[in-house]
Amino acid sequence: MGVSKSFFGNLSTGEAVNLYHMENASGAYADVMDYGAILVRLGVPDKNGEIKDIVLGYDDLKEYEVNSCFFGSTIGPNGNRIAGAKFTIDGTVYSLAANENDNNLHSGPNGFEKKLWTGEVLDGKNAVCFSRISPDGENGFPGEFKVCVTYELSEDNELILTYEGVSDKATVANLTNHTYFNLEGEGSGEVLDQLIMIHAQAFSAIPDSAAIPTGENRPVEGTPLDLRQPKKIGLEINSDYDQLVFTGGYDHNFICDSYEKGVVREIASACSEKTGIAMTVLTDLPCVQFYAGNFIKQENGKNGHIYKKRHGFCLETQVEPNAVNEPSFHSPVIAAGEKYFTRTIYRFTVI
What is the three-class DSSP state of 287? Predict the structure, then answer.
């Protein structure tokens, strides 16, 4: 139990990267590293009491320096897409890199997941805080943004992610985590038989494969995106429905029920009937991006495993994609000096 620190490898720059291992009394564990504040491994008990690593990732630090799928990554300062790779705050236009078509994806290239953070084990807690100062203008975003991300592993098999920060200019703050889960164990193949449920009456409709929402919150009722009851991920993923055709399967923002600023509530759950591992997602954020790994091609993953299409799924808590440019969405903008604080919890149980 507790937190231990070890050497994980050297970056191509020569900088050393540390791995922090958190473990609790049940044997559940989480391994996180200071490069990218990335979750490398997450082990939880299955119905037979065996600990399974249920997140996709790599054994080699060099693979994380590429990591085109963003396995385990802390994404920031803005998760998801910004249309036209630009936005306006207080009359000033800020330009970003167009790293996906004409748009900006995940604040890249070289967003927070490609930065070396400073790790600190928190006294009296099974937790590690990763901090960094994002300089004014980094990747085009305004303000010197002092930010920290804390991973905590509770005795109740909860992985608690807390994001905090403050900027000296008004800026965009919409951090998220891009972990890919496979509740039958990383490397076990497709997740299509695993069950998903999302507490959302509506999703952000997209007009084409660029996946920039139109501002329309479309009801899930009568569509393959109705996940209000547990449904196998693969049941309707290949449906001839425009929203799924555009993105090759699920890759959509859901507007979750019962949003109240600052209040954590349950928004989604998933489980594997095979392993008995169940996951509940709780957050104080309004939305979640459900992504079913449609664009994983062939990744040399952990333990000699090859990851392919739909071998993992993501539940990325957030505000709506392109919210900074869409007045009808929840704003990701924080004022100068305003404290940014948000929390997401992944809770694991056995069914």
Answer: strand
In this predicted structure, what is the pLDDT of residue 2? 81
Domains of the chain, by residue range, sit at 2-350
pLDDT of 6 higher than 90:
yes
Active site amino acids: 178, 316
CATH code for the domain defined by 2-350: 2.70.98.10
Instruction: Spell out the residues 6+ positions from residue 307 whose beta carbon is closer than 8 angstroms to its own.
Output: 56, 69, 186, 187, 296, 298, 299, 301
Residue whose pair of structure tokens reads 């509770």 in the numeric block: 154
Find the mean pLDDT for residues 140-153. Answer: 98
Residue pLDDT, tens place only, 76-105: 999 999 999 999 999 999 999 999 999 999
Torsions phi, psi of 158, nearest 5?
Answer: -110, 135
Q: Are 17 and 10 in contact (CB under 8 A)?
A: yes
The pTM of the whole model exceeds 0.90: yes
Closest CA to 244 of 270, 268, 218, 266: 218
Distances (CA, A) of 174 to 5, 76, 82, 163, 195: 29, 7, 12, 9, 27
